[in-house]
């Protein structure tokens, strides 16, 4: 049965909170114990899998054989309400312990099935408790178990949307999409808040690898040209001006590199030293157009990614940043130093956050 009363979303939100906390405990157990066991003498690694297997066997022998193996049959039984909520909660906790022991000892059996198992047990247990406290809730134990599968997927594996489609495909019940979304959101946010790096990022870094994190890439602030561009060095020169007059205009300018506007829409550059040299050689009556290089400056727009500027700033000392609406309107300029300074500033800001 799906969602009947909107107020039931609070119950699913509670399940999301519980799933987020369980995800953090699960991931923290693996990421904490794994490096400690790997730091032990090398010869102990031959015995660690056997010891882990013995401990898991003891768990099964003492009354919880359900935690051994993939547990798909047990999940089906939980969905159909064949266990008490107390036993379901115990199974969820023991499965976390068993999976941690297996993984950190060097004999991982995968993460997919254990995540589904823990989520189903936790969801069904939460459903049992909430029905006990609030008998008017209409969601079945099976619904809570299915939502719980998605919750652990979202919190532990950090795949909130994938888990939504997975639960819908497994159940074939599209009326539970809202409960799944609510529970997944709470689980993901809590797990992400308490443990910013996903388990796979932590494991790869423990092994000496530093792969790009999709979560970090999605949230990374994209630097754009407008973040690094500087004011236009005034005055702007036009290509039909004589060299001598142009030199008089820029003599007091603090900038060595100057922009020249070409007709109808284009840009070139010249330095004050070049102007002085040509005027001293008696070329003061010539127009700027006649002495400028044939190649025009490339142009950028303020919303271009900053790394696009790297294509040009090594070759050109000054690159104009022009309006998309009017290529003849320059909004700023950018140089290699501007780009490098902005990247360095961004790195310092990131280090402060860390």
What would you say this structure looks like, in words?
The chain is mainly alpha-helical and 354 residues long. It folds into two domains: 207 residues, Clc chloride channel (Orthogonal Bundle); 125 residues, CBS-domain (Roll). The protein contains 15 helices and five strands. The strands form two sheets. Strands 1-2-3 form a three-stranded mixed sheet. A two-stranded antiparallel ribbon has the order 4-5. A hairpin with a 7-residue loop joins strand 4 and strand 5. Helix 1 runs antiparallel to helix 5. The longest helix has 30 residues. The protein is elongated. The mean pLDDT is 84.
**What string gives the helices and strands in order?**
HHHHHHHHHHEHEEHHHEEH
| Percentage of β-strand residues | 5-15%
Q: How helical, in percent, are the residues?
A: 55-70%
Q: N- to C-terminal separation?
A: 45 Å
Number of helices: 15
Which spans have pLDDT < 50 for at least 5 consecutive residues? none
CATH class of the largest domain: Mainly Alpha
Radius of gyration: 32 Å
Average pLDDT confidence is 84
CATH architecture of the largest domain: Orthogonal Bundle
Q: Which fold name fills CATH's third level, the topology of the largest domain?
A: Clc chloride channel
Structure classification: mainly alpha
Subunit arrangement of the protein: single chain
The number of E-state strands comes to: 5
Largest sheet: 3 strands, mixed
């Amino acid at each position: 049965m799906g969602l009947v009363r909107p107020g039931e979303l609070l119950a699913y939100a509670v399940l999301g909170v519980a799933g987020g906390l369980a995800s953090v405990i699960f991931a923290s157990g693996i990421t904490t114990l794994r490096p400690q066991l790997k730091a032990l003498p090398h010869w102990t690694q031959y015995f660690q899998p056997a010891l882990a297997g013995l401990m898991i066997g003891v768990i099964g022998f003492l009354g919880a054989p359900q935690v051994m193996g993939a547990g798909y049959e047990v999940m089906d039984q939980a969905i159909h309400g064949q266990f008490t909520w107390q036993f379901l909660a115990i199974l969820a906790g023991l499965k976390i312990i068993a999976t941690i022991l297996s993984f950190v000892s060097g004999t991982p059996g995968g993460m997919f099935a254990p995540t589904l198992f823990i989520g189903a047990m936790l969801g069904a247990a939460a459903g049992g408790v909430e029905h006990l406290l609030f008998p008017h809730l209409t969601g079945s134990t099976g619904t809570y178990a299915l939502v719980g599968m998605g919750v652990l997927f979202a919190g532990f594996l950090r795949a909130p949307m994938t888990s939504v489609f997975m639960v819908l495909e497994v159940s074939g019940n599209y009326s539970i999409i809202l409960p799944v979304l609510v529970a997944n959101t709470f689980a993901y946010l809590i797990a992400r808040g308490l443990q910013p790096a996903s388990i796979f990022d932590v494991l790869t870094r423990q092994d000496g690898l530093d792969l790009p994190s999709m979560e970090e890439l999605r949230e990374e602030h994209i630097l754009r040209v407008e973040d690094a561009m500087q004011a236009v060095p005034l005055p702007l020169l036009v290509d039909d001006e004589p060299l001598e007059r142009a030199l008089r205009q820029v003599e007091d300018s603090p900038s060595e590199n100057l922009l020249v506007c070409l007709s109808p829409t284009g840009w070139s550059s010249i330095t004050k030293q070049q102007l002085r040299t040509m005027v001293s050689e008696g070329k003061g009556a010539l127009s700027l157009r006649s002495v400028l290089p044939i190649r025009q400056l490339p142009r950028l727009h303020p919303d271009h990614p900053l790394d696009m500027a790297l294509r040009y700033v090594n070759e050109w000392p000054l690159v104009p940043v022009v309006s998309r609406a009017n290529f003849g309107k320059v909004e700023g300029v950018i140089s290699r130093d501007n780009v490098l300074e902005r990247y360095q500033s961004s790195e310092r800001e990131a280090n402060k956050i860390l």
